[in-house]
Amino acid sequence: MPRSVNAVASRARRKRILKEAKGYFGRRKNVWTVAKNAVEKALCYSYRDRRAKKRSFRALWIQRINAGARLHGMSYSQLIGKLAKEEILLNRKVLADLAMNHPSAFEAIVKKSKIKFL
To answer: Which of 66, 63, 69, 61 is nearest to 92 (CA)?
Structure first.
């Protein structure tokens, strides 16, 4: 009896990987073994960097809040501490957006946090 191989499934698996490798440079896009390794590595990077993106955005927000706070004579840590004491519950994403796009609203928040602690 001849050896049975599932050529349909094997070919479909290869086609799926080569389709995912579309746009890669050189042999990474059309040679099965090279493309398979490249796609596996890319999937690892995408998983890792979905988490890294959250960290880098938080760092960006903190820089923007710090820049906005320093315009009003305060550091980032002082501002966050005073907002916590005042129980002003705004996350860093919103504060950064206000600092960049709505400076008057950000200034009002800073003044509100300063009231009791002057």
So the answer is: 61
Amino acid at 106: F
* Residues 87, 107: Cα–Cα separation, whole Å: 17
Residue 37, SS3?
A: helix
> 88 near 94, Cβ under 8 Å?
no
Distance CA 83, CA 112 (A): 9
What distance in Å separates the CA atoms of residue 84 and residue 116, rounded to the nearest whole number? Answer: 13
Q: Which of 4, 31, 3 is nearest to 17 (CA)?
A: 31
- Per-residue model confidence as pLDDT tens digits over 47-103: 999 999 999 999 999 999 999 999 999 999 999 999 999 898 999 999 999 999 999
pLDDT in tens, 24-39: 999 999 999 999 999 9
CATH number corresponding to 7-117: 1.10.1900.20
